[in-house]
Amino acid sequence: MANLDNSDRAYKKGEKTGAKLYTFPTIPDDVDVKSIRGRLGMTQEQFTSFGFSLGAIRHWEAHRRRPEGSARVLLMVIARNPDVVLETLHG
């Protein structure tokens, strides 16, 4: 059995060790792309400036396809702070 240091022993006993516990947010199963774009006052063509293809935007808005995980995360960031994304992409 591996040697346990004091913090490992304390943790196993349920004592506070000073370790930080991180919780990770869940990524929503669906994102309303048309709503996000509408709040920004952007056309589908303008929304491509975030790096999405026009075809993908049209499919998402027509509910023929759903954005994959990383696209959903980016869409969430765009919904909250589009300027950060645009500054990052376009310097």
Name a few traits of the molecule.
single chain; 91 residues; mainly alpha; 434 Repressor (Amino-terminal Domain); 6 helices
Describe the protein:
The structure is a single chain. The protein is mostly helical and 91 residues long. It has one domain (21-90): 434 Repressor (Amino-terminal Domain). Helices cover 53% and strands 0% of the residues. Helix 5 crosses helix 6 (82-90). The longest helix has 12 residues, at 69-80. It is elongated.
Architecture blueprint of SSEs:
Blueprint (H helix, E strand, L loop, with lengths): L5 H7 L20 H8 L3 H4 L6 H8 L7 H12 L1 H9 L1
Helical content (DSSP H or I, runs of 4+): 40-55%
Q: Poorly predicted ranges (pLDDT <50, ≥5 residues)? A: none
- Computed CA radius of gyration, to the nearest angstrom: 21 Å
Put simply, the count of helices is 6
CATH homologous group name:
lambda repressor-like DNA-binding domains
Report the major sheet: none
Q: Quick check: average pLDDT?
A: 88
**Number of domain modules:** 1
State which percent range the strand residues make up.
Answer: under 5%
CATH architecture: Orthogonal Bundle
Described by the principal axes of the CA atoms, the overall outline is elongated
Order of helical and strand elements: HHHHHH
- Report how far apart the termini are: 53 Å
- Under CATH at level 1, the class stands as Mainly Alpha
Number of DSSP E strands: 0
CATH topology: 434 Repressor (Amino-terminal Domain)
Structural class, by secondary structure, is mainly alpha
